[in-house]
Amino acid sequence: LGDEGEKEDENEGDGEEQNEDEEDDFFVPITKAEYDSLIGEVYNLLVKSLLKCRCYRDAYDFCARGIELFHSLKQDDSILQDALGNIKKVYTSRREKLDLSPSEEKKDDNGVDPRLLPAQGVARRVLYPWNDHEPDRKASETLELLNEILKDVAPKCEVKAVALPALHGTAGPHGINGGAKGQEGEVSIQLGLFAKEDIAPNEILLRETSLLTATNRLHDDLCDACNSPLPDLSSPNPPVPCSDCEDTIFCSQECHDQAQEIYHGAICGMEGLASIGRDIPDPKDKADYLYLLLLGRALAMAATQEMHPLDLPEVKYIWGDFCDFDLDPEPEEAGEKDDSATLPFSFHLTILQPIRLLEEMGLDPYATLPTYDTWILNTLYAKFRGTASGRLSTWDGGPELCAVHPLWCLANHSCDPNVRWEWGGEITFRARGVEERAVWRRKGANGQVEERKAEKEGIRMGEEILNHYCDVDLS
Ligand SMILES: [Zn+2]
Ligand SMILES: [Zn+2]
User: Fold this and answer.
1) Who contacts 148 (Cβ-Cβ below 8 Å, separation ≥6)?
2) What is the pLDDT of residue 449?
3) Reduced to 3 states, what is the DSSP secondary structure of residue 34?
4) How far apart, in whole angstroms, are the C-alpha atoms of residue 227 and residue 213?
5) Which of 21, 259, 419, 475: disulfide with 177, CB 3.0–4.6 Å?
6) Which candidate, 216, 276, 209, 264, places its Cα nearest to that of 240?
7) Dist. CA 400–CA 379, nearest whole Å
8) What is the Å distance from ligand 1's center to 425 Cα?
9) What residue ranges carry the coiled-coil annotation (predicted)?
């Protein structure tokens, strides 16, 4: 932020000519005096917004920097002082809960150890009123379109709209976090997957491949596109490297060709991208970084296909557990919980790292705002967090792979699932046999244990395909 004034001048002479015309429409150079008159309000806004999202560590950082700046400019810092007061309250209550010894706390001049403030906050999953990319998932044209794609992926299945009881807890019908809020007895209309004809036990009823995948493995022996293991160099069909950047390896010519068209074209040779999201300071943040990598793949797909990210077919029809837009004018107390805020949000992973991704892709994050604005990235995150499936590392047990399969995630979840899913290069649903179905036990009136088992083999026509809750909790 502090460099902004100088930056404008630097860019005057040496910008790329092509971009300059475009940028001139968006940006007006400002003087140092104009910058000084604006920058205070920028700090106020940033700190207030970070507080709203409960990103206290970054709010504190900008607050301290802002107060210093206000002093040097001899401006009124009362808004930031108020914010600082609120942050200190949060700090004190957190400090009490943590019960640290004095040596574990390294207080600064404000009496705050910033490391003890939470950096991860939450935002709402909002269906922004200006988001005209979101389809009506229950409209007949959407169902027709999805059923058309399903013909190849799951020929014995169809998509239908179903009424589900509105959920109160944390498990959403398509995902591992979030969930519609509602009163007892309320229903929410969701999409579901149904058998169009009988399906035999052990029959594979859905096979879906997706290039919307991400891995945080550093030394990859996986295909860059589909994440399946690379074949041996000596095999008749050896791995295929990208001809322009040798570090990118695919399992087959098919994956190579698809990758070029779908996501690799725009990022080929952009070496700076490789390190983003893979150097993870704290192992417990691994899942959050996987979502960032998934975001990076979506941005690469959008740039390669010259498409808006929210219009990507892998993204457009998936569920985001959105709540309605509500411009809440009430000032919130620091630390107060907003129940509708369920989407993890941090300055680092929602703002800074995505800007780094764009810059490493050779895109100006400001000039490309209409395509990659924060609300768009937040919408992507909301959709990914509701629907991505993950795989754990056999190495350290941490999450290392995740993917979005837009048709697979149409299936609702049940405690008595009738399919099992497996994910190699493609994701599949396989119908469960009787021996794999849930067994319900209860104590009868006479104290005897009664058992109820599934009686049917496979899945009958008209039955809903029900997935199990995710084995891997990425949230
Ligand atoms: Zn592949
Ligand atoms: Zn390449």
Assistant:
1) none
2) 67
3) helix
4) 7
5) 475
6) 264
7) 23
8) 7
9) none
Helix (H, G, I), strand (E, B) or coil at 346: strand
Report the SS3 class of residue 115: helix
Span from the CA of 155 to the centroid of ligand 1 (angstroms)? 23
Q: In what order do the strands lie in the sheet with 213-215?
A: 213-215, 399-403, 389-392
Q: How many angstroms separate the alpha carbon of residue 174 from the centre of ligand 1?
A: 26
Please tell me the distance between residue 249's alpha carbon and the centre of ligand 2 in angstroms: 9
Q: Which of 413, 410, 399, 389 is CA-nearest to residue 169?
A: 413
Of 269, 300, 470, residue with least CA distance to 386? 470
| Nearest ligand, measured from the Cα of 222 | 1
pLDDT digits (tens, 9 = 90+) for 3-36: 444 444 444 444 444 444 555 566 778 899 999 8
What ligand has the least distance to the C-alpha of 247? 2
- Give the number of the ligand closest to the Cα of residue 243: 2
- With bands split at pLDDT 50, 70 and 90, how would you rate the model's confidence at 84? very high
Give the HSE-up count for residue 214: Cα atoms under 13 Å, Cβ half-sphere: 29
Q: How far is the CA of 220 from the centre of ligand 1 (A)?
A: 12
Can you tell me the ipTM of this complex? 0.98
CA of 198 to the centre of ligand 2 (A): 45
Asked if residue 430 lies in contact with residue 438, where contact means CB atoms within 8 angstroms, the answer is: no
**Separation of alpha carbons 160 and 242, rounded Å:** 41
Contacts of 101 (CB under 8 A, 6+ apart): none
- Domain chopping of the chain, boundaries: 31-118, 122-475
| Number of the ligand closest to the Cα of 209 | 1
CA of 306 to the centre of ligand 1 (A): 23
CA of 394 to the centre of ligand 2 (A): 28
Span 352-388, pLDDT tens digits: 999 999 999 999 998 999 999 999 999 999 999 988 8
Question: What does the alpha-carbon distance between residue 55 and residue 47 come to, in Å, rounded to a whole number?
Answer: 9
